[in-house]
Design a protein that fits this description.
The protein has helices spanning 17-20, 56-69, 120-125, 143-149, 155-158; strands at residues 6-8, 72-78, 83-89, 92-98, 104-110, 113-118, 135-138, 168-169, 173-175, 178-187, 190-197, 204-208, 217-221, 236-238. The protein is of the alpha+beta class.
Length: 242
């Protein structure tokens, strides 16, 4: 087994680093959201599931529950300030988050262990209090790693969303070759549309915020495929709890 190359960052060096972290994780619930591509996870050969016959809030709850029950999926987010591509489960996360002008980071979560590697731009945002191009290792007890890990919305598996704001069900439509039931949420003059598969498992396949760049778009795919998070073994820097 390869022995990890590890060094430690003194706790004092990290003081204030999280306060300088200007990136904010995009929280996702039934009223706000966020990927660039359209759904590709449901084959037209799948039988109709009849989800369109149910009330809108029930459809939404069943869709988020179906995503959770899949055990894992790929989530891609596209917002004006953030683009991310993550593979998720309740215990794993791996992928990248690009905060554009604020920098980019890679993340790997396996159980309670968090590994994150930031680029030079994000290191500068943090006033170089943490190193770039090396893997930071710790847990959510560290505020900085907790902030970075918050982009992995693993609560989608443990606490599937329910509709806390009224949704309007629309007629089934074709979305990139897939039959979906659109659920519209109107808030502040903007419309966010949740697209639920009308065939096969009633997965939430996408969130379309095309008239609200700040909210952004999300797509979900690769349901049930292993996340395959691999923890780094070289260039690892231990981050203390605080």
């Amino acid at each position: 087994m390869t022995t990890p190359t590890v060094r430690r960052v003194p706790l004092a060096v990290l003081a204030g680093a999280t306060a300088l972290l200007t990136v904010t994780a995009c929280s996702q619930d039934s009223t706000g959201t966020s990927t660039p591509e359209r759904p590709t996870s449901t084959s037209r050969a799948d039988p109709a599931n009849g989800i369109e016959l149910l009330p809108a809030d029930t459809i939404y709850a069943k869709a988020t529950q179906a995503n959770a029950q899949a055990g894992s999926f790929r989530e891609r987010v596209n917002r004006t300030d953030t683009v991310s591509d993550l593979r998720l489960s309740a215990t794993e996360c791996t992928g990248t988050v690009d905060k554009k002008q604020h920098g980019r980071f890679e993340i790997v979560i396996k159980g309670s262990d968090i590994f994150a590697r930031i680029d030079q731009t994000l290191a500068k945002e943090l006033d170089h209090r943490v190193p770039a191009a090396q893997w930071l290792r710790g847990t959510r007890d560290n505020a900085l790693l907790k902030a970075l890990a918050s982009y992995c919305h693993q609560e989608q598996f443990t606490h599937p969303g329910t509709a806390s704001t009224p949704l309007t069900k629309k007629a089934i439509r074709e979305t990139a070759g897939h039959r979906t039931v659109p659920l519209d949420l109107i808030a502040g003059g903007n419309t966010v549309t949740y697209l639920v598969s009308a065939d096969g498992p009633a997965h939430l396949l996408a969130v379309d915020s095309s008239n609200n760049d700040e909210a952004g778009d999300i797509t979900y795919s690769d349901f049930g495929k292993p996340v395959g998070a691999v923890t780094p073994t070289t260039d690892v820097v231990d981050i203390p709890s605080r």
